[in-house]
């Protein structure tokens, strides 16, 4: 079982931005793409979705860039994943993919399991997952990146 | 988020066999492959794993075939998925894939979420998911298949 690449990238963007509030220069798409080795075209789509959800703000222009637009302690990871994962089911239950559909009890069971997963992820906020060692690592990554540019 | 194709096929095999106890002819790999439109080479690998787990028995020869080797009410779906999904994590956290590893708090959070998912799936047994409409559908599928052969 794997998160979609879309969610995976989305979480990294949020984690990265959660610890960028104190630096002078804004974070750019190019910076995140370079730091996590993510293709820019993928990243642009994810950033667009995060902005539509109201979690980040993207401004254009010379001093433009990406900023977190919510308090990290108020953003639940389950809520983020529900949005980024979308409506996809855990198994391909479409009529063509499986003859058991629409009579399948497993389908409802898997939906229960998914709800339990999201509920467990709701016990973590963006602040929780960017504390301690993760936060320090992010700050270090950002410092090293800016040194390279200087 | 998607189950692996391996697990998806594994669940279908177990569901199919759970309702085949009353028919005279044993179920074959070819039958399941045909019923669910699964490539035989994929199916053989999954069947091998289900047999190694002790959940099904595969016998060779003229009257050989596949049979369930556990009571459906004793087989928890969470346990099945833990085995079939294996050790894979929800995100690709390997050192090469993500620079946050090994400092990443999200990694542990996702592992918590996965445990919650499996615990929720443990509330369902193979008997539960092959009852009612699913069971009736399977029995109908098997009856129709045998009619075609006759």
TrEMBL record, chains A, B:
Keywords: DNA-binding. It comes from the Bacteria. Pfam families: Rrf2. Coiled coil: none annotated. The keyword DNA-binding applies. The keyword Glycoprotein does not apply. PROSITE patterns: HTH_RRF2_2 (PS51197). InterPro entries: Tscrpt_reg_Rrf2, WH-like_DNA-bd_sf, WH_DNA-bd_sf. Signal peptide: none annotated. This is Rrf2 family transcriptional regulator.
